[in-house]
Design goal:
It comes from Hibiscus trionum. This protein is of the alpha/beta class and 301 residues long. Helix content is 23%, strand content 12%.
Length: 301
C-alpha cells in the first residue's frame, strides 16, 4: 500500500490539467533573473515577480483564471509558493527564498505538477467540488487514464530533428520501457517508423505544433502525453548524452520518466522517484523507486 502522510497546510491531491495539452507553456526561470527577489513576501512590489507567477501558473500553482500577472506579491502567490515549497520538500515560507529560487530554476519535465487552486480556500481542488488529502506520493492524470490493453507498441517519429541516431536511441529506449515492464504486467515492442504506434518518440525545437513549445537549453527537457495520446518529445536543443558529463542530460533517465507519463502517471513528491519533476545535469537516474512501482501497479493492477 502507498505510504500515507498528513498534509496539514493544504488539503490537496496532485492532479493535472484537464485540458489538452498536458504540457506547460513555460519553463524554469534563470536564477540570475530572480536574485533581486530574495526574501520577497506578500505585499511587496518588485520587478520579476510576474515571472514567478508565470512559472507557478504554467505548472499549476497559481489560479488559471487570472490573466493579469503583475509584479505585486499577492495572496495567490503566497499560497502557490507554499504549495510548491511543500511539494518540493522545502521549508514552507510563502516567500521567494534561496531554496525556492533554486527549485524554480532547475531543469525539469514540461508536464505540470498540480492544477486547480481553489482561490477561496487556497487549497487544491480536483475539479468536482471535493477536497482531498494526499494518499500517496505518486499521482495520475485526471480520470486516471490508462491503456485498455497491456501489450503496447512504440516507435520513433519520422519528422524528428536529427539529434541522436536511431542506432543509439533504440537500445536505451528499449531499456527504459523494460524498467516499467519489469514491475508491471505491461509489455512493449518497437514497430517500424510510419506504422501507427501507441507511444511515439521524437526530438523537436521550440514551437513544434503540440501547443506546448520548448524553451531552449537549460529549461524544459521533455514532455509527454497521457493515454490514449502517447506522444513523447525531447527538446532537441538540450545537451543530450548517454553518459552525461556535468553539463549534459541523460537521455535514458529522461526516457524512463516520460514513459511514466505515457502510461498515465503524473509527478511524484518523492525526490527518489523517477516521476519527480526535476533532473540534475551530469547525473543518471534510471531505476524506478518504490513510489513509481506503487503507482504503476495501482494504475494497472
Amino acid at each position: 500500500m502507498a505510504t500515507k502522510f498528513s498534509h496539514q497546510l493544504f488539503g490537496a491531491i496532485l492532479v493535472f490539467f484537464l485540458l489538452h495539452p498536458f504540457a506547460a507553456k513555460s519553463g524554469p526561470i534563470k536564477p540570475e533573473s530572480l536574485q533581486n527577489l530574495k526574501q520577497s513576501q506578500k505585499g511587496d512590489v518588485a520587478n520579476g515577480i510576474n515571472q514567478v507567477k508565470q512559472f507557478l501558473k504554467a505548472f499549476g500553482y497559481y489560479p488559471r483564471d487570472i490573466d493579469l500577472l503583475d509584479d505585486r506579491f499577492d495572496d495567490d502567490l503566497e499560497a502557490g509558493l507554499g504549495v510548491f515549497q511543500e511539494i518540493y520538500n522545502l521549508k514552507v515560507t510563502g516567500k521567494i527564498d534561496s531554496d525556492t529560487i533554486k527549485a524554480i530554476s532547475a531543469p525539469r519535465c514540461g508536464v505540470p505538477d498540480v492544477s486547480g487552486i481553489d482561490r477561496a480556500s487556497n487549497r487544491h481542488n480536483h475539479g468536482h467540488g471535493g477536497m482531498f488529502y494526499f494518499v500517496a506520493n505518486y499521482t495520475f492524470f485526471p480520470g486516471s487514464p490508462r491503456w485498455s490493453r497491456l501489450d503496447l507498441t512504440y516507435n520513433f517519429l519520422s519528422d524528428s530533428v536529427p539529434v541522436v541516431s536511431l542506432q543509439v536511441m533504440r537500445p536505451l529506449i528499449a531499456r527504459a520501457f523494460q524498467r516499467w515492464a519489469n514491475v508491471s504486467r505491461l509489455r512493449f515492442r518497437e514497430v517500424a517508423q510510419g506504422t501507427r504506434a501507441d507511444i511515439r518518440i521524437g526530438f523537436y525545437r521550440r514551437d513544434h505544433g503540440d501547443g506546448a513549445p520548448f524553451d531552449g537549453p537549460g529549461g524544459v527537457l521533455a514532455h509527454a502525453f497521457s493515454p490514449q495520446d502517447g506522444r513523447f518529445h525531447y527538446d532537441a536543443e538540450e545537451n543530450w548524452s548517454t553518459n552525461p558529463s556535468w553539463s549534459q542530460v541523460d537521455l535514458e533517465s529522461v526516457a524512463v520518466h516520460e514513459i511514466g507519463h505515457n502510461l498515465g502517471l503524473g509527478h511524484s513528491q518523492d525526490p527518489n522517484a523517477i516521476m519527480f519533476p526535476t533532473f540534475q545535469a551530469g547525473t543518471t537516474k534510471r531505476n524506478l523507486g518504490q513510489d513509481d512501482i506503487n503507482g504503476i501497479r495501482a494504475l494497472y493492477p
